[in-house]
Amino acid sequence: MPMPADYHMHTPLCRHAEGEPVDYARHALEVGLTEIGFSDHSPMERDDFDNWRMNLSQLDEYVAKVRLAQKTFPQLTILLALEVDFLPGQEDWIRNLATRHPWDYFIGSVHYVSDSWDIDNPAKLSEWKKRDAFEVWQAYFDRLTLAAESRLFEIIGHADLPKKFDIRPQQDCTPLYKKFLDAVATTGCAIELNTAGLRKDCREIYPTRALLDLAFQKSVPITFGSDAHKPEEVGMDFAAAVELARAAGYRQSCRFRQRRREFFGF
Ligand SMILES: [Zn+2]
Ligand SMILES: [Zn+2]
Q: Among 58, 174, 183, 224, which is most exposed with the fewest C-beta within 10 angstroms?
């Protein structure tokens, strides 16, 4: 079976990743991938929103960098996508972004539980100490459920991101997972197995096995992503991700072309 596609990787335009798309593509070929997708952090309508994404004026440059990788490595399928931040109220902006280029897919991710707190930002780790962990997880999953319900995305990114720093609530999070997955199942988007969690304090793929088991029960499709922020991270720990997916019962993952879905065995 071929390796599943790696649908989550970044570029230096987001200001916290290194290596050009051609370098990511070269590494993808070295590790035996046949398909990848660039999904850099989407620009906001206002460039001063935060400092870890491309400016709006750089969107064309982003597309040109991905096109150059496509031209340089015609033997590798390279898709054009974005990891789009979901914040309530941003829906029109996300629809606007969708019209600007012929995207292959959008990953919808929640990083912000409020307009000012991106919970995975190491610079804001102290915010976690001011709050009850379960309340943060609830706020996060409420937004993630809205993201799934919005029908703006093909894939929902790193579904249990709040575990990144290994700050976990005592309470059972199963009801939060279920509500989110019901929305995902209803609207028909996929969730990703994101191996970046293995490189963080939580030392665990996103999402956790319990969430993935529930997803399989609800026939929620999956994709795979390394969330590479440097070329050598492309395809990283995919063997572990495939093993986890198979253990949960999965034998297929999705691929996208121009926001249309197909299934492939792995
Ligand atoms: Zn990033
Ligand atoms: Zn993300």
A: 174
